[in-house]
Design brief:
It is a single chain. The protein has 52 residues and is mostly helical. The chain is 79% helix and 0% strand.
């Protein structure tokens, strides 16, 4: 995962949290937290250079 993709994921997380504060809907909160977890796990498991 490149640095641009990681920061794009963080931006989407922040936008989701802002939407949660606007609407108060728990779906935005849990969806944003799940997305952040997915971005972090993907960033930790991906290795530069790929396989081989």
């Amino acid at each position: 995962m490149g640095a641009m993709a990681f920061f794009a994921g963080l931006l989407l997380f922040v936008m989701g949290m802002g939407k949660w504060q606007e609407t108060g809907s728990p779906w935005w909160l849990w969806g944003s937290l799940a997305f952040l977890l997915l971005v972090v796990v993907t960033a930790l498991t991906s290795r530069p250079g790929g396989k081989g």
